[in-house]
Design a protein that fits this description.
Strand order of the largest sheet: 3-2-6-5-4-8-9
CATH superfamily: Glutaredoxin
Order of helices and strands: EEEHEHEHEHEEEHE
Shape: globular
Number of helices: 5
Length: 184
């Protein structure tokens, strides 16, 4: 595991559109058709990363809470499945079903979507407004595996609440830290 921080994506920058397969139901998902009325959260995650495993329950809880407020959530895995078969589409579906993901779990086979978002790690978290302009790109919170800080989603929740309240997000945007995306 190579510890990696998220890279810059300009605040106010537009979310690149995509069309990817949802591993849960095998249907195509486009960003333009699945954006939320009030905003869209996009997570680059995978099955095996301990940093993602550490926050999975909070991602599910946040999605269940904020979906009701007009925020859509989309998870994407871009890892090389030839060298990391545990992140392949069939196991993605199994993982999503086991964890009861309330959001699509998309497979970025070509890794082009990750490159378009300048994604670097898992988890790599983005929040876009209703016009798909970036309002937040950073960590979920200060919790990491084995640091004994509880997972609260504080930083991302603050960004979600600021977006919903049409207020500036005054929370410092600290980079997300996790496993590097496994490039081909």
């Amino acid at each position: 595991m190579a510890l990696t921080a998220s890279k810059e994506f300009e605040i106010g920058g537009l979310a690149p559109d995509f069309t990817l397969i949802n591993t849960i139901n095998q249907k195509l998902v486009t960003l333009s058709e699945n954006k939320g009325e009030n905003g869209t959260a996009i997570f680059f995650i995978c099955n095996h990363c301990p940093f993602v495993i550490h926050i999975n329950k909070e991602l599910v809880a946040m999605a269940n809470e904020y979906n009701k407020k007009g925020i859509s959530f989309i998870a994407i895995s871009s890892n090389d499945v030839e060298n990391y078969p545990q992140d392949g589409p069939d196991l993605m579906r199994e993982n999503a079903e086991k964890l009861k993901y309330p959001f699509p779990y998309l497979y970025d086979e070509t890794q082009e979507v990750a490159k378009n978002y300048n994604a670097a790690c898992t988890p790599d978290l983005y929040l876009f407004d209703s016009e798909l302009k970036l309002t937040y790109h950073g960590q979920l919170d200060n919790s990491r595996p084995e640091n004994d800080i509880p997972v609260t989603g504080e930083d991302f929740r603050n960004a979600l609440d600021a977006l919903l309240n049409k207020a500036p997000n005054i929370t410092p945007q600290k980079p997300s830290i996790g496993c590097n995306i496994k490039w081909k």
